[in-house]
Amino acid sequence: MKILAQLDTSDESIILIDNSNSVSKNLINKISLTLNSNPNKVILINPNLSQSEILSKLDFDIKNLSQLSKLEILNKEFEINDLLNLGRDLVKKIIDRVFIISSNFEESKIIEIYQNCLINRIPINTYNSSKYSTFTLLSTYNNGDLQIGITTNLHGCKMSSRLKRELIKSIPPNINDIILNVSNLRNLINSNEILNKKEKLKWLSQIIDYYPLNELGKISIDKLNNDLNDLVFKTPNSLNSSINNKKIGKISLVGSGPGSISNLTIGALNSIYEADLILADKLVPQEILNLIPKNVEIFIARKFPGNADNAQDELLKIGLEAIEKGLNVVRLKQGDPYIFGRGGEEYLFFQNHGYKVNVLCGLSSPFVATINAGIPTTHRGVADQIMICTGVGRLGKIPENLPLFESKRTVIFLMSIKRIVDILPILINEKQWPSNLPVAIVERASCGDERVIRTRLGNLADVCNKIESRPPGLIVTGWACDVYTKLNDNEEFRIIETGVSLDDNVDLEKIVTLLK
Ligand code: SAH
User: Fold this and answer.
1) 367-497 CATH pick, 3.40.980.10, 3.30.950.10, 3.30.420.40, 3.40.50.300
2) Where is the Tetrapyrrole methylase domain (predicted)?
3) What are 302-336's pLDDT values in tens digits?
């Protein structure tokens, strides 16, 4: 295993060994990289290139010109003794790190340098050769406080660069605001004297794991601070604005599906495009929020532990005011509005205020998750019932009516991953559920980072403890889990990364044109 390094050569003396006749891109890159990595000095040894030739090509992004003074160019052949004579006094003049730059050295020469580096414990990196490198560099991306390093374990730096580009594309432009905001938020929550440590963690996780990434940069810390103690109503701009050409407002309760745009109904997409104001749950995925046209205002429910009821009241109040002003309001809910989404309550609220609610179903996460995990929820001879349960009862307690075991039933528990430790003993000891019942945890169904973890009921608590969960997730139980794939007898659990970017092939512009 090589050391994979993001270069930080604090106070090291580094030799770059080169013998090419022209200044290569790789040479420029390595000079730039090493000079920027805070070294003691960088010594370039090349017998063919003059100092002025090299310096004239150095229009790279050295942070600070004073760094250039750390570059020493020796116009000579490299000698093995250089490894032992050109370093710092502190380490008896032994060089700290070596880069072989050009690929046209004889292999025997490279072996000689490499072996001498090994003997003297000098880390060496040979261009395009993992065989003669003791360390390799990560392809890195730095943006303010964010640093990402990528490696394909020496299977090609081009691939790392490509992956890097893809990753960077998916990072929101306001990532530094997001990082800063979340860090302030963490400090704010940590300094709160009312919440205990567990509650603080829960708060943070509710915000960081569930809130759409782009929005994390915009949450107002002051407002959240108020949320912690008391709720302050925020009025979306559209309510204050006078742009109001519709006489009677409308309200639609719309399911967004579990994540992917491919699982959004055409009806939902249409209502998103026609809305004046979208009131969204924080679980509604970023991909879907990205579809919302710029002129449509979005308000995201501020549901955090202990604040769910207040946030719900706030949302309903905003919705009502907007309809009264004649706006077209879309209440966008994750999955299906009626599956553990308080959709019915919202319907009744608006109905009681004299408004008819238009309800559009959405694909519910249990159905998408089971399909994607390869679990036929009903299967002849195996399962002829499906049950969808919650792992959280009223006031956050364990649900009172957990079901008795029924062997031909596929049971899907939502909101259960954190609660399973408390639920399992009841299922196994009181409700006669067998410990060897196959189960699958399905996380982030239909998103690019979807993951399935298969295990058996008896191991479930342990497995949930071992994995770092990727919310949102649900638990599927029943013999239907075993129809396509089974765990081996002695296999405790199996993690399967099932995420695919379904949406890459969705030509949204075409769909939108069709809709219009
Ligand atoms: N109305 C939603 C469910 C809301 S309850 C629906 O119809 O899907 C929230 C729970 O749904 C989460 O705790 C989780 O258990 C589940 N869930 C939502 N989206 C999910 C997803 N993409 N993958 C896995 N589980 C999901």
Assistant:
1) 3.30.950.10
2) 250-460
3) 877 667 788 889 999 999 999 999 999 999 999 99
